[in-house]
Design goal:
Blueprint (H helix, E strand, L loop, with lengths): L1 H14 L8 H13 L14 H4 L6 H21 L3 H6 L4 H10 L9 H9 L6 H15 L4
Helix pairs in contact: 1-2, 1-4, 4-8
Length: 147
């Protein structure tokens, strides 16, 4: 999500006139080095790797982070309702998970505003804590990060 944050910050700076489009590639490399300690070998794998800007699509990047945060909440709720989901997936059986998603998300389409749908599906509002816990569990030991 750090690269999403970077894209959002750069996009905002361009829209506010604080960053010129001509300076995006250089700023991308500088910020990637500063934030993550890496640089891309070329613009195609760096600032241009995503198709949104080159397609004229502005403002989409934060939705990726929202999706990541929400996905863990939905996963935890589905797992609480059907504890066998992990074992089922190990057998390549996604029936219960898909059924849960159809019942709690898909069947509603655009019937509810996002906050209402999240509450109906999970019993709570959008919450970053489960996602942060997931990140810590996944990366904490690898990178020596503690909370």
């Amino acid at each position: 999500n750090l690269h999403i944050m970077l894209r959002f910050e750069m996009e905002t700076a361009v829209m506010e006139g604080k960053l010129k489009v001509a300076d995006l590639a250089e700023e991308w490399q500088s910020q990637m080095e500063s934030m993550l300690g890496i640089t891309a070998p070329d613009d195609a794998q760096g600032v241009l790797q995503d198709m949104h800007w080159s397609s004229g699509l502005i403002g989409y990047f934060p939705t990726y982070t929202l999706g990541n945060v929400l996905s863990v909440q939905l996963w935890e709720r589905a797992l609480a309702d059907h504890p066998s989901i992990i074992d089922d997936m190990g057998r390549n059986d996604y029936t219960k998970l898909l059924g849960w998603m159809r019942e709690h998300i898909h069947r509603h389409g655009r019937k509810f505003r996002p906050n209402t749908l999240i509450h109906k599906a999970t019993g709570g509002s959008l919450d970053a804590k489960p996602y942060l816990k997931y990140l810590h569990t996944k990366f904490g030991e690898i990178y020596g990060v503690s909370v």
